[in-house]
Amino acid sequence: MLECSRICRFQISLFVExxxxxxxxxxxxxxxxxxxxxxxxxxNAEEIQAxxxxxxxxxxxxxxxxxxxxxLDPATTKxxxxxxxxxxxxxxEIVVELIGGYTLAxxxxxxxxxxxxxxVTANKALIATHGPEIMKAAASQGVSVCYExxxxxxxxxxxxxxxxxxxxxxxxxxxxxxGTGNFILTEMRDKGRDFADVLKEAQALGxxxxxxxxxxxxxxxxxxxxxxxxxxxGIELQFDxxxxxxxxxxxxxxxxYAEELGYRxxxxxxxxxxxxxxxLRVHPTxxxxxxxxxxxxxxxxxxxxQGDAVGPTLYYGAGAGAEPTASAxxxxxxxxxxxxxxxxxxxxxxxxxxxxxMRDTPVIGIDDxxxxxxxxxxxxxxxxxxxxxxxxxxxxxxxxxxVIQKEPESNESTVHLIMxxxxxxxxxxxxxxKAVEALSSVKGDxxxxxxxxxx
Length: 455
Ligand code: HSE
Hints:
38% of the residues lie in helices and 24% in strands. It contains 15 helices and 17 strands. It has helices at 2-20, 32-43, 45-52, 83-87, 103-114, 124-141, 157-164, 179-191, 195-204, 213-216, 219-233, 252-260, 322-338, 385-395, 426-437; strands at 23-28, 56-62, 78-80, 94-97, 118-121, 145-146, 170-176, 243-244, 263-273, 278-288, 300-307, 311-318, 370-380, 400-405, 414-421, 424-425, 442-451. The strands form two sheets. Strands 7, 8, 9, 10, 11, 12, 13, 14, 15, 16 and 17 form an eleven-stranded mixed β-sheet that branches. Strands 3-2-1-4-5-6 form a six-stranded parallel β-sheet, with helices on both faces. The protein binds L-homoserine. L-homoserine (HSE) binds next to α8.
């Protein structure tokens, strides 16, 4: 009896020590998001401890030029330029990867997992492209990998989809998931600003990726959509199958014509379950201006999720920037600490579905996607042209829903014709577009922007 009480007391004291000891975090990267994470962890330390029950301390941090940083106290945080030193520090329990990119980040994360560390990352490119390998390694080591900040910055969309919507069969997800792109489109529409000028501002504000073509050519949004599709439908991460089109070809003219027709052009990531398979596509999209998501402006992101039980739900917030992204990173650290000693089967599965229940539903190509279209063309200004164009679409089984013809500019002999089609398969529209472009009365290529009603 005496023996048992001694053992019990010993176990309790171990438990108490474990509960109240600071959790030691290793931080990789002290750039925009790394700096934001350190700031939030330090500023809100008391609030966070009240939620978690233990202090969380950055005890080792790596970053380029880290000796010059002023956020972390070298008396309590070891500072190094060598990120592997942090990952190999045996005291570290959670490695927070905020370096970004593919190769180095992957090596560091894999090493952290091998060393038995839990990982938190904001790296969407890493999860979208190397997620399966990383998650397999994490499962075999019994550690967690959290990536809330990888999609839509500060919006807790991963948590919402993995937990809050877990009762639902998700039907589709549509999101504005690149803050830089949304900021550019908003400024073009509201202020008629130049594309390059707005992009520079987004870079200065810390919104844009290190390589801003990731933002404007849709790659960043495609990384995020890849993750959302897995969470929605229980399919593997398949970045290579995501159709990706950016905003670099969107003109102020089209933004204005869309407004005249009652639509906004937004850069959307859309994933939808259909009878043929799963749509996975990122592109500029006309959406009715009366939809809430059409009014999400600036760097803000929004994700609309349609579940069979709940119906549509909309998640809105800052999609980029130091502290909004840090908010998601720190939430992941908190989640990790709360279940740090729990076995993996007591934790939420990394992609929201049990590993052995993942599905092999095919992802369909863009040619098989059904959508409506905004088509703009430059046509000769003489009688019969509109009829000829409409007839060509009709012969290709494309139904036109609305047409506008703009007044010709003075001394111009051509006019802009804008047509909105009804829903049809993309491969059919492609054939019709080619036929219209071949008409002698139509000049140059047609502009085509997909259109979604999101109802
Ligand atoms: N470059 C990204 C964006 C940052 O603009 O949304 C957040 O992932």
